[in-house]
Amino acid sequence: MKRYDRQEKFHAFGNTTQKKLQNLCALIIGVGALGSGIAEQLVRSGIGKLIIVDRDIVTLSNLHRQSGYLEVDANEMKPKVFALKERLQAMNSEVKIEAMNMEVLPQNILSILETHQPDVVLDGLDRFETRYLVNEATNKMRIPYIYSAVLGSQVSVFPIDSNGPCLQCIMPEPPETMESCALHGVLPPAVHIASSFAVAEVFNYLMTGMFSYDMKWIDIYKGEMKSTHIVNLKEEDCPVCRQHHYQRLKQSTIEGEYYCGNVIQVRYAPEDFDKLLSPNVNVIKQNQFVKLLEYRHYKMTFFQDGRLLIYGSENKNDALEVAQLIFVTT
Ligand SMILES: [Zn+2]
């Protein structure tokens, strides 16, 4: 029996859609729970090429919902994209998979899209600022973008292309209750629903030649679901999809430091990753990609791209002060 027999047997899918899928190149930005779920379905279904981009390493707190990862990945502090590529390739060796261990920023997003020319971009993100950036970049490059988000028990997924509204039309401001972080938690079933809806949009597009232009919204805790047709929500004066003013693409960087629960991020230069650390800093664990550090009661994660995450601080200034003290002063 042929590998993809069961999906080809579905009347609207058939061998024709299978061939289209095998010629498709998708880019997934962010491979946490959502992104790794999307990646698994696309790879098992036999997509032609998949590019995965993410800046994080696997941690134990990811494992309850992020189906792409195992305990061994967390213990080895593996970058998510490398752990996921290995797993995906073991699921389907026919798919071309490219792993990019990097942060998506205003300075690099256009070159990522230009280099890889994906047919579709899928959202596995947990930060709205980056979603708005992806919205601008995909609009500029005229690449379809499937938005998906999960918070707590709530899921929302909708497709964006130049015929319909963009993210800016639908949500001019990041919804207050939807801003990322560890604050609201995530229920695993909600994530799996979201990744399935996102993949279903891709399949629908391949089967029918067009997106649904429906926003799917589900709350698995309340047991509520609705589907809203969004094609008429394109704003007359949208700065992004009507006026093509790409504010976020022009920013030099998204932010210097931010709060996420009690986590603060500080950016150093990538070469600072190899700088000599102060003897007062305890290196708990390290590999070529990341160092887990401890200084007084602060725990820190230092990434090879220069990002330093400081945990356990109630006070931003204290954390910033600690960030200044981790290196040997010359
Ligand atoms: Zn718009």
From TrEMBL:
SUPFAM superfamilies: Activating enzymes of the ubiquitin-like proteins. Gene3D superfamilies: NAD(P)-binding Rossmann-like Domain (3.40.50.720). It comes from the Bacteria. This is ThiF family adenylyltransferase. Residues 4-240 form the THIF-type NAD/FAD binding fold domain. Pfam families: ThiF. The keyword Isomerase does not apply. It comes from Staphylococcus ratti. The chain crosses the membrane at residues 21-39. Keywords: Membrane, Nucleotidyltransferase, Transferase, Transmembrane, Transmembrane helix. GO terms for molecular function: nucleotidyltransferase activity.
